[in-house]
Design a protein that fits this description.
This protein is an alpha/beta fold. It is built from 11 helices and 12 strands. It starts with a helix and ends in a 26-residue tail after the last helix.
Length: 287
């Protein structure tokens, strides 16, 4: 029966398949999907860097005026174009802190690609065999996007470079930023992100145990034990934290909106201080 259901889903139009996938992900995927409505501004644009299969993109588009989805894997970018429709712009490029071309590594398991683990970082996801392809490389600033209200970045260890390449965009529009950062992908990635965002006046937070917590409470040994990271195809471990929300004081009301969507429903103070780098986060890598 599971094989029959899978075959039937493949016959569905791409927009419907994507909508079903996105709805299911809210129940069994990343916990931060549930707070996407609070992150968005219906008068602004959402940008999804590393859109992959489009799960976040669907929810970002639903709660925003428009969506720009960035996905360097050509086959995935084409699926996103078919699935997201006219309110979304899909760009088949990778983002970094320079422009030109880059080598994208796509891990493989058996005969199948694992595009969700694709990365520009040479040291990330080395436990897999991989194939490579050359992709166009742009910067967020170079795209010259307007009215950016929320920015989501999942690039398997390359997040700090993406944000460096978008410094002027961040300073101008001050979007809410949802960014993935795992020390197993690149040591010092989170510390580098926190420092950059702090310089721009942002404060960092993460969701854990049903509450929004300050970045200063993050402990890699507790919240990001590599032994508890998500295996391919498995559910997300409840205690493992890999997403972080950075909010500028100009959008501080977002914190209360996030709290209202969390199980406790307790309002969070809208006072926002520039992000400290928690002492427990390893120092920035020299790579």
């Amino acid at each position: 029966m599971p094989n029959l259901l899978s075959a039937m889903r493949r016959l569905l139009p791409e927009p419907l398949r994507l909508a079903i996938r996105a709805r299911r992900a809210v129940r069994g995927g990343e916990r931060e999907l549930a707070i996407v409505p609070a992150l968005c501004d219906r008068d602004g644009i959402a940008v999804d860097v590393g859109a992959n299969l489009g799960v976040y993109a669907v929810h970002l588009r639903r709660h925003s005026r428009g969506l720009v989805a960035i996905e360097p894997v050509p086959a995935l970018a084409e699926r996103l174009r078919r699935g997201l429709g006219p309110r979304a712009t899909v760009l088949a490029v990778a983002l970094s802190d320079r422009e030109g071309e880059a080598t994208l590594a796509i891990p493989r398991r058996g005969d199948a690609d694992l595009p969700s683990r694709a990365t520009l970082e040479p040291g990330a996801n080395r436990e897999f065999e991989r194939r490579t392809l050359t992709v166009p490389l742009r910067t967020l600033d170079g795209l010259d996007l307007q009215d950016v209200a929320v920015l989501k970045v999942h690039t398997e260890g390359h997040e700090a470079a993406v944000l460096r390449g978008g410094r002027h965009t961040l300073a101008r529009w001050r979007p809410v930023v949802l960014v993935g950062a795992e020390e197993r992908h690149r040591r010092g990635n989170l510390a580098e992100i926190a420092a950059l965002m702090g310089e721009l006046g942002y404060a960092g937070h993460f969701v854990h145990d049903g509450a929004l917590r300050p970045l200063s409470a993050f402990d890699p040994a507790r919240h990001q034990d590599p032994c508890r990271s998500k295996p391919v195809g498995a559910a997300h471990p409840a205690d493992y934290v890999h997403n972080f929300v950075f909010v500028h004081p100009d959008r501080a009301r977002v914190l209360d909106r996030i709290a209202a969507l969390l199980p406790g429903g307790q309002a969070v103070s809208t006072a926002v201080d520039p992000s400290p780098t928690p002492a427990s986060i390893p120092p920035t890598s020299s790579r």
